[in-house]
TrEMBL record:
Taxonomic source organism: Marinobacterium mangrovicola
Domain Cytochrome b561 bacterial/Ni-hydrogenase, chain residue ranges per copy: 8-172
Record GO biological process: respiratory electron transport chain
Protein name: Cytochrome b561
Superkingdom of source: Bacteria
Amino acid sequence: MLKDSQDRYGIVSRIMHWAMALLIGLQLLKFFDRINDGEHWVGKTLVPTHVSFGSLLLVLIVLRILWGISQRNQRPEQDPASAKLVKAGHGMLYLGMLLMPITGVSIMLGNGYGLTVFGTELVARGTDIPWAASLGSLHSPLSWALALLIFGHIGMALLHHFVHKDDTLKRMA
């Protein structure tokens, strides 16, 4: 089943969800960069891919938003009692996921570093752009907020699966 249905999410939604979950999980390893100034195996092996994976995530997030809009009338139904909370939670997740790469690119361009993605220079080094650097300064606080939202999302999925014993988690698995 390619598209979403009232019973479960389709293969496109599930692949995008889990691919993004994996990439975001790798991105969150950047928090380890704060330990010993990144001088450990995580900092040396995974952090150098941070900008490339973040750029890939930006593309995936935009595609996933467009896909979600196209599937909005076919999605599994929500419990009416919690539908507004679920939509608000997912809205904040999407906003956070969208703002992270935007503010990340703002750091790179705002500080004149340029932008190289998977070894390809997209924007050459240049002069500082103060407004972009200022926007980029939101990247770190947003990462903490997004991490909390993600852990809340995981917690709610587990609550539905183990406590409510409904099919919420199975719809995306």
